[in-house]
Structures are given as C-alpha cells and as structure tokens.
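Predict the structure of Sulfotransferase.
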Amino acid sequence: VSHYGPFWDHVLGYWKASLEWPKKVLCLKYEDVKKEPSGCVRKVAEFLGVPFSPEEEKKGIVEEIVKLCSFESLSNQDVNKSDTRSRENPMSNSDFFRKGEVGDWVNHLSPQMSEILDKITEQKFQGTGFSFH
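Done. Here is the predicted structure for Sulfotransferase.
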C-alpha cells in the first residue's frame, strides 16, 4: 500500500503527459539513467533548453554533474540520511535509498511477490507503449 496511491497510475500519468506535452514533461527511467548517465544528463539539459557547449563538454562538466548526482553522492548527503517522518510525510528521505542498483528489488521480494507484481505491471501497462525494458 502506498500513501500516494498506486505506483502504476503515477508512472502512466507522467508517461502520458510526456507524450502529450513533450516540451513540458520529460520521462527518464532509472535503468536508463544508470546505464547511460552522461547521455541522460545531456538529455535533461537539452530538455531545459540549456544544452552543453563544446567547451563545457571538453571541461568535463557533464561528468562532474554525473558524479555530483550519483547514488553515492546523494545517499551520503545529511538530508538524505534523515529518518524523520510525519503524518503528512510518512516516508523519510532515507527510505528512498537502498543500494542504487538496478534489479535490487529481487533481494526484497519473494518469487511469488515478484510474479504477482509482474502480472499487475503487464496488465496496467498493456497497450500504453510504456515498458520497463
């Protein structure tokens, strides 16, 4: 149970918005960010209308942003180590950090739970054009 409603509804809402308003909503998948972080940083910069100049590329600005926004860097920020919770915000910042690895969910779900979630995900995303793969 999610305090914020079904996960799939959020994903599809943003996905559909990105298709309807591609200049206003950008969807990136965590798996893609992990696989090609520099490309995703460039994509965000272009989306925001501030692509990197050749000089910035040469100076390594993209790589520096990747480093500053890495799981290791963000998970070690004091604000993200907080376990503060409230009625309005039942999840602490630290709840959003585990290992930062694609597929780590397999260590937290039983095979049966995984199968159920796969079926629900397939049903919810069927015919939408959205895929986690």
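Residues 111-125 form the longest helix (15 residues).
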